[in-house]
C-alpha cells in the first residue's frame, strides 16, 4: 500500500496545510485583554447613564411646559403638626398660636473639648454665659439644655459650627400676635408649652387635646379702643393704673377687658407683680357710689320703697366715733330719684336701713357679690365680705364701702339691673347662638325699667354729664372710693370709676372704666372723682365703638326715647306735654308757603 506524500489529502486528492503551532500566552497579553473588557463595560455604563440623562432632558424641555420649579408651601412641609390649638377673637383674629422651633441641647459625654465648644457656642449665641455653659458641658450628665426655642438665624449659626455632641430638638413656641393688648386675658405658657396664666392656663387641657381654635367673645377692635382711652386717662391724671370692660348685657359676653399696666406675654418673667396683676378680675376694691346701683334696685324691688319717696339727707349719721356725711351737703331732703341722681350717701344709708341687714345680704348674694364670678380665668378674686354682717356694715355698703368686689362683679351685676332683671353668667367665650343663654331672674322687669330711667337721669341731669355721647342715649353711675391704707382711708388716694350703658331705651352694652389713684388737674379744678375722670373716657369710648357694634344713633328728643327714659326729681316718669305753639296776634295773617317746586300763581 502506497503512502501519499505529505500535504495530500487522501480523501480529496488535494494538499492540506497543517495548522501552525500556537504560541504560548504571556502575562502581558492577559492583562491587556482584561483591561479592554473592563473598558468596554465602563463605556457601556456611561452610555446608559448619559442616555437616561438625555431622555430626562428631552422630557423636561420638549414634553413639559418650561417653567421655574414650584416652591413648596408651608403646609406641604413634612413636619409634624403643632400640639396646641390656636386662640382667636370673636371675628377669627389670631390671639395665640404655636410655631415649630428648634431647641439646642448637648451630651457632655461626647464632647472632648468643652472649653472650645463653649467658646464657639457663645460666639454664635452671645446671650449665653460662657462660664455657665462650660460648667454644663464639663459635667457628667448625658443631657443638658443649652438654649430653648432658637430663631432660624440662630439655628443656622449653630449648625454651621458642626460641633460633635451638640444637637437640635424640635419643640413648639407660643406666639401672641396681639402681644400686650390681650396679655391679661390670654395669659402665657412656659418653656414646656404648658399654660401658666390666663386662658392658656384655664383651658390648658382643651388646647392640648382639641385642635379646633378656641374662639373668644373678645373683639380685638374694641380692645384697641379701650386700651388707647385708658392710657390717655392714666397720662392725663397721673394715675398708677386703670381697667376697663365692655360687656354685652343680653348674653353676658365680655367683649373687651383691659388692665393697665400690661406686659409682653412672650417674656413675662422677672416683671413687677403689679404689671402681671389683672385689675379687672383679680383686684377687689371698695367700689364707692357705683354700689348705689344695687342699693337703689334692692329698695325699689322690695316693694316697700317708691322712687318718689323722700329720705333725710340733711342730718348726718353718727356711728360710734365715726360720722357718715355727704360729699356735698344738701339743704333739703331728697327723693329716691334725687338720691341716685346726686349720689347721696345719707339717703342711701337710710334706704338700706329701712330694709334691714338680712335683706341687703340676701340681695347682694343673689347678685353673685359674695363669691368669685364664673368667668373662665384662674385670676378670679374673692370678694371681701363682712363677717359678721352687722348694721354698721349695711350702712357703709349702701354707698360702696365696707365690702370689696372686682370690677367684673360690678359689671355683671349691673347688667342684670338694666337688662330686664336677668343675671347671666359672664363669659370670655363666644356663645353659640343656637344654645339657650343661662340666666336667673333677680329683679322684676318693672324695677329694671325704672333703673334704666335713673341711669339716664345721672347723665342728663346728674354727676355724669361728661359721659354723654350724642345719639347713643348713654346712662350710668359714677363712683369714687377712698382707698384704705392701714386702718384708715387716704383722702388723696382714691379709685374713680364710671359704669355707663347704652342705649338706655334698649340697653345692649355696658362700658366700665376704673382709674387707680388719679390726680386732679387744672382742667378739672383739682377734682379727681368718677364724674371728672372716668365718665369722659366712657363717653369717648361709646362714640367710637357704637358704629362698630352696629348701634345706630337716634334722636334723643324723639318720643320713643323720651317715653322710655324720662324721670324727674320728683320721681315722675310721664314727660311733660310739649308747649303749644305761640298764639298769633289778633288781625294778623299767615302767609301761605307754596309747595316745593311750585311757583305761586
UniProtKB/TrEMBL annotation:
Compartments where found: Membrane
One Pfam family in the UniProt entry: PBP_dimer
Keyword field: Carboxypeptidase, Hydrolase, Membrane, Protease
Domain Penicillin-binding protein transpeptidase: 244-527
Main location: membrane
Ranges of residues in domain Penicillin-binding protein dimerisation: 81-205
Highest taxon, organism lineage: Bacteria
Listed Pro residues bias regions: 575-584
Region named Disordered: 1-23, 565-601
UniProt protein name: Penicillin-binding protein 2
Organism encoding this protein: Azospirillum formosense
Amino acid at each position: 500500500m502506497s503512502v501519499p506524500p505529505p500535504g495530500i489529502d487522501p480523501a480529496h486528492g488535494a494538499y492540506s496545510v497543517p495548522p501552525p503551532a500556537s504560541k504560548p500566552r504571556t502575562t502581558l497579553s492577559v492583562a491587556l485583554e482584561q483591561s479592554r473588557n473592563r473598558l468596554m463595560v465602563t463605556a457601556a455604563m456611561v452610555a446608559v447613564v448619559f442616555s437616561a440623562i438625555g431622555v430626562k432632558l428631552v422630557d423636561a424641555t420638549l414634553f413639559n411646559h418650561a417653567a421655574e420649579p414650584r416652591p413648596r408651601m408651608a403646609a406641604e412641609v413634612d413636619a409634624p403638626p403643632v400640639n396646641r390649638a390656636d386662640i382667636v377673637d370673636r371675628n377669627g383674629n389670631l390671639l395665640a398660636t404655636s410655631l415649630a422651633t428648634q431647641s439646642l441641647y448637648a451630651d457632655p459625654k461626647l464632647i472632648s473639648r468643652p472649653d472650645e465648644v463653649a467658646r464657639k457656642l457663645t460666639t454664635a449665641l452671645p446671650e449665653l454665659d460662657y462660664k455657665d455653659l462650660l460648667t454644663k458641658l464639663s459635667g457628667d450628665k448625658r443631657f443638658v439644655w443649652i438654649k430653648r426655642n432658637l430663631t432660624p438665624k440662630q439655628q443656622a449659626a449653630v449648625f454651621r459650627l458642626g460641633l460633635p455632641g451638640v444637637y437640635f430638638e424640635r419643640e413648639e413656641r407660643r406666639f401672641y400676635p396681639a402681644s400686650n393688648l390681650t396679655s391679661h386675658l390670654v395669659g402665657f405658657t412656659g418653656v414646656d408649652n404648658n399654660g401658666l396664666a390666663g386662658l392658656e392656663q384655664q383651658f390648658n387641657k382643651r388646647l392640648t387635646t382639641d385642635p379646633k381654635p378656641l374662639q373668644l367673645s373678645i373683639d380685638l377692635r374694641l380692645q384697641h379702643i379701650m386700651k388707647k382711652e385708658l392710657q390717655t386717662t392714666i397720662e392725663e391724671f397721673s394715675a398708677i393704673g386703670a381697667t376697663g370692660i365692655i360687656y354685652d348685657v343680653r348674653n353676658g359676653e365680655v367683649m373687651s377687658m383691659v388692665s393697665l399696666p400690661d406686659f409682653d406675654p412672650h417674656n413675662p418673667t422677672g416683671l413687677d407683680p403689679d404689671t402681671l396683676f389683672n385689675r379687672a378680675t383679680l383686684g377687689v376694691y371698695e367700689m364707692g357710689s357705683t354700689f348705689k346701683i344695687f342699693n337703689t334696685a334692692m329698695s325699689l324691688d322690695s316693694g316697700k320703697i317708691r322712687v318718689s319717696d323722700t329720705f333725710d339727707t340733711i342730718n348726718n349719721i353718727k356711728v360710734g366715733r365715726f360720722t357718715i356725711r355727704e360729699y356735698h351737703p344738701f339743704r333739703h331732703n331728697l327723693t329716691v330719684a334725687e338720691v341716685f341722681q346726686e349720689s347721696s350717701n345719707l339717703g342711701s344709708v337710710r334706704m338700706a336701713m329701712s330694709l334691714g341687714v338680712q335683706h341687703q345680704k340676701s340681695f347682694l348674694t343673689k347678685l353673685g357679690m359674695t363669691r368669685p364670678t364664673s368667668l373662665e380665668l384662674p385670676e378670679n378674686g374673692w370678694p371681701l365680705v363682712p363677717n359678721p354682717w352687722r348694721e354698721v356694715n349695711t350702712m357703709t355698703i349702701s354707698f360702696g364701702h365696707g365690702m370689696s368686689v372686682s370690677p367684673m362683679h360690678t359689671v355683671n351685676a349691673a347688667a342684670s339691673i338694666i337688662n330686664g332683671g336677668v343675671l347671666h353668667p359672664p363669659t370670655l367665650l363666644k356663645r353659640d347662638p343656637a344654645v339657650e343663654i343661662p340666666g336667673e331672674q333677680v329683679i322684676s322687669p318693672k324695677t329694671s325699667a325704672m333703673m334704666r330711667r335713673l341711669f339716664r337721669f345721672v347723665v342728663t341731669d346728674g354727676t355724669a354729664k361728661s359721659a354723654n355721647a350724642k345719639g347713643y342715649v348713654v346712662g350710668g353711675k359714677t363712683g369714687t372710693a377712698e382707698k384704705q391704707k392701714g386702718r384708715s382711708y387716704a383722702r388723696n388716694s382714691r379709685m374713680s370709676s364710671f359704669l355707663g350703658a347704652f342705649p338706655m331705651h334698649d340697653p345692649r352694652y355696658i362700658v366700665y372704666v376704673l382709674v387707680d389713684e388719679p390726680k386732679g388737674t387744672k382742667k378739672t379744678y383739682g377734682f379727681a372723682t368718677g364724674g371728672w375722670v372716668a365718665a369722659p373716657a366712657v363717653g369717648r369710648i361709646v362714640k367710637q365703638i357704637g358704629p362698630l357694634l352696629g348701634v345706630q344713633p337716634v334722636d334723643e328728643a324723639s318720643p320713643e326715647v323720651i317715653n322710655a327714659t324720662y324721670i324727674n326729681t320728683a320721681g315722675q316718669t310721664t314727660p311733660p306735654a310739649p308747649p303749644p305753639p305761640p298764639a298769633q296776634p289778633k288781625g294778623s295773617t299767615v302767609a301761605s308757603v307754596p309747595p316745593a317746586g311750585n311757583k305761586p300763581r
